[in-house]
Design brief:
The structure holds two protein chains of two kinds. Chain A is mostly helical. Chain A is built from twelve helices and five strands. Chain A has one domain. In chain A, helix 8 packs antiparallel against helix 9 and helix 9 packs across helix 10. Chain A is globular, with a radius of gyration of 19 Å. Chain B is an alpha+beta fold. Chain B has two domains: 211 residues, Sandwich (Immunoglobulin-like); 40 residues. Helices cover 33% and strands 35% of the residues of chain B. A five-stranded mixed beta sheet of chain B has the order 2-11-10-4-7. Chain B is flat and about 80 Å long. The mean pLDDT of chain B is 85. Classes of the chains: A mainly alpha, B alpha+beta. Chains A and B meet through strand 1, helix 3, helix 10, helix 11 and helix 12 of A and strand 5, strand 6, helix 3, helix 4 and helix 5 of B. Strand 5 of chain A pairs antiparallel with strand 5 of chain B.
């Protein structure tokens, strides 16, 4: 069924977008990933303008993130104070990201930048995930987390000013740390249209030094607000949020997440993780072809 | 039904409007883009009251467009150079009557004369002139103009070749243009030419509006004028769906 998107100003096959978001939603329920980093490239492959894909995706992440965050909140696994401080950084990051996005669009480099950044991002996540899951399968139980945790408060971090107490995380650290991590999240959300959980979560563990139990909830708490703000900023500044596309994405994601949650109780995710890593790597290869291979048509035309 | 009425109108009005040698009307006054829009055929009917060849040109609104060239740098392909053209129609298509003997084209002189008339009237892709204020050499300009046409053809917004004009009788003709689903909106101009051996005998101009209507148009207008409120609606919807998703999961 073709549906005309009023903001993208083009018709798309609605069911394909729905199934993509259903599939990614299912993955997010299974593996606890956000999935924005898969949906956005898929939409670009299907011909949605990258600017609209990136502008609309945060809206879906907000919906997905909220349902995850509520579950953590009920268990008391959200450090609201830490999340609020991170939001200071993320709002600045979002504003800067949206304007960088606008600048890149003006310079004609936005498609290149998005392909390039996604290639780097997806190939590194894919490789890490593949390494981790394969070594787990081979039962070399390397606990990477422990090694890092031992030097979580290193000398440099301890010297930073503006120290604050975070009772929930049992930390007394510089506010600059969560602000900096939030800033990174804001940039990722506004330029790439992703929640960035796969980068924020390790940063919260290894750089901020938060206890594992509150990390997922707090990162989701922060992501919900950051992506909501990114949606608002894109709507006001770039006019690239397509509500019809958002509705399809959110519906697919919500249904998919339920399926994923049910599936996760039945199947072993260790083996499936290898498949996920391969999937991510193949998306990275497909995207990198746009950057590294000689294109069929060297010229492109856009309306100024 | 409407097509029948148009045909009737054209046929009836033709003798009255004797001062004009060519009369045309459209099967529809506007192309309405709704949520279910998936491209449309724009049909045009006309009557010719004098001998000559018929040509129809449809031109969308003009925009500034940038043509960029990818080049290899440090192993990656990136847009490095570009030229801005000031007057590129977002959509262009044309139809040209095929006269018996066109194929043989024995008459080289007549063919050359026709080509001059076509070029002067802006009929056909060769007749389009894209202007730029930038300082570029003629060779580069040619390459970029060719690329612009190729890109637009690939998008389905410029034609590969002239469309056909069908004659139902000696005087009564019809033609149609395909409007793709991702067509830019705006006021489109349709010019119908009656071409003699060396000059244009008559031109008839009509307009068609291509625009979003109904729900689709309301969303577009709302997003353009009230970006903040539009963004808030999107966010509120996302929040509601997130809550709903959580609610469903707790019940499962």
């Amino acid at each position: 069924m073709q549906i005309y998107l009023p903001i993208a100003e083009m018709a798309i096959p609605a069911e394909s977008i729905f199934f993509v978001s259903l599939f990614v939603g299912c993955l997010s329920g299974l593996f606890g990933i956000g999935g924005g980093f898969l949906t956005t490239p898929f939409m670009i492959f299907m011909g949605v303008p990258p600017a609209v894909a990136v502008g609309t995706q945060p809206c879906q992440i907000a919906a997905n993130g909220l349902s995850g965050m509520l579950a953590h909140l009920r268990k008391g696994h959200v450090d609201v104070k830490m999340g609020a401080v991170m939001l200071l950084g993320s709002s600045v990051g979002t504003v800067i990201g949206v304007f960088v996005f606008k600048l890149l669009k003006y310079l004609g480099q936005i498609d290149f930048a998005i392909s390039m950044l996604y290639t780097i991002l997806l190939s590194s996540i894919g490789l890490l995930m593949l390494y981790e899951s394969v070594s787990k399968l081979l039962r070399k139980k390397q606990s990477v987390k422990l090694e890092f945790n031992q030097f979580k408060v290193n000398d440099f971090v301890a010297t930073l000013p503006f120290k604050m107490r975070f009772p929930k995380s049992k930390l007394y650290i510089s506010a600059l740390l969560p602000i900096g991590v939030g800033f990174m999240s804001g940039i990722l959300a506004s330029i790439l249209g992703i929640g960035g959980g796969f980068m924020i979560v390790p940063a919260m563990i290894y750089i901020i030094g938060m206890p594992g139990i509150v990390v997922a909830g707090t990162s989701l708490f922060q992501i919900v607000f950051t992506t909501s703000f990114a949606t608002l900023m894109h709507a006001v500044t770039n006019n690239t949020v397509d509500i019809l596309l958002a509705v399809i994405l959110i519906c697919g994601g919500v249904v998919g997440a339920q399926i994923g949650a049910v599936l996760s109780r039945r199947i072993k995710t260790t083996h499936a993780r290898v498949l996920l890593a391969v999937l991510i790597l193949s998306v990275a290869v497909r995207l990198s072809m746009q950057v590294f291979m000689m294109p069929d048509e060297l010229f492109s035309t856009v309306v100024r | 039904m409407r097509i029948f009425l148009v045909v009737l109108m054209v046929l009836l009005s033709a003798p009255v409007m004797a001062q004009s040698a060519v009369t045309v009307d459209l099967a529809q006054e506007s192309i309405d883009i709704t949520t279910g829009f998936n491209g449309a055929d724009l049909k045009l009917f006309g009557v010719r009251d004098a001998p000559g060849r018929i040509a129809v040109v449809i031109t969308g609104p003009q925009r500034e467009m940038v043509v960029r060239r990818k080049q290899r740098i440090f192993g990656v392909w990136a847009n490095l150079s570009g030229i801005k053209f000031d007057n590129v129609p977002v959509y262009y298509d044309f139809a040209l009557e095929q006269v018996d003997g066109d194929e043989e084209s024995e008459d080289v002189e007549a063919r050359a004369a026709l080509n001059i008339v076509l070029a002067q009237s802006g009929i056909g892709l060769e007749a389009l002139h894209f202007e730029t204020e930038e300082n570029v050499g003629p060779d580069d300009l040619k390459v970029f103009q060719g690329a612009l046409i190729r890109n637009k053809q690939a998008e389905g917004r410029f034609p590969e070749a002239a469309a056909d004009i069908t004659f139902m009788s000696d005087t009564f003709f019809k033609t149609s243009f395909y409007i793709p689903a991702d067509v830019p909106t705006g006021e489109y101009q349709i010019k119908t030419y009656l071409i003699g051996k060396t000059s244009v005998k008559d031109v008839s101009t009509t307009n068609v509006r291509v625009g979003q209507v109904g729900f689709s148009a309301e969303i577009y207008g709302f997003a353009k004028e009230n970006g903040l409120w539009y963004g808030l609606v999107c966010v509120m919807f996302a929040i509601f769906m997130g809550w709903l998703s959580d609610f469903i999961r707790r019940r499962l």
